[in-house]
Amino acid sequence: MASVADYITLLKPRVMSLVVFTAFVGMMMAPDGMHPVTALTALLCIAVGAGAAGALNMWYDADIDAAMVRTVRRPVPAGKIAPAEALVFGLALSVGSVGMFGLIVNWLAAALLAFTIFFYVVIYTMWLKRSTPQSIVIGGAAGAFPPMIGWAAATGGIGLEALILFLIIFFWTPPHFWALSLYRIEDFARAGVPVLPVVSGVIETRRQIFFYTLILAPIGVMPWVLGHAGPVYGFVSLAGGALMLVLTLRVKALTEGGAAEQAARQLFAFSILYLFLLFAVLLIEGNPAHLGFRTVLNVQKGQE
Question: Domains in the chain and their CATH numbers?
């Protein structure tokens, strides 16, 4: 019989935590404040929605998960949760999270959450993942929506800052995932998943990783350049982007043997740290000049 831990695993808690964290940063960067209860409700709905998408992904991908060493112990392929149970569980959480989000917070944020779940499950999981090596590029949009959802929850709209956060995660996803696929290539090949290294080879994958990192590094600096973050973020984003490029060049240069695998592992590990640091500093330091400017305007309006 399935345990509580099995159902928690079905929600992909590590992915869920990243979704909630980036959504929270988008919410905190927004110019409009939120009541603490409303904010907590929004984050709960986002977390449940992310978990629902994870459960539906595991339901549909049970055959792939069963063929991969990395995922064979997940609850559905391991036989701990029946596919039908995972499907009903995921659908119930999807409807509940979107409905509560709309009723308590606002319907734009709820619609974005619903679209994110749909995009991840239908567009990415059911279609792109099994049909094209570019699935992670297009499907990566699903993981990039949470900051926009958080911003919409706070403001009822979508701002430039939220779009920049979307772009950071969107262009971060390919080098992050393809670094993993370089040293898990046999796993993906055995499962029949057409990831880039399997279809186009490792040399092309390394070239694509470098290309996307070249785009990512300057986009990561944009919140500071546009005045939405302070000097600490500027330093972290510049240094982190430079180190991402150095690690990417190392992956591109080392093509064979254990050193090449180690380089890919190092890039994968650092990419997680890079994204976390960007958003953590934004959470602490984000938008000081922007908020100060709004405060000055409000004071001036009050004096007129």
Answer: 1-158 (1.10.357.140), 160-299 (1.20.120)
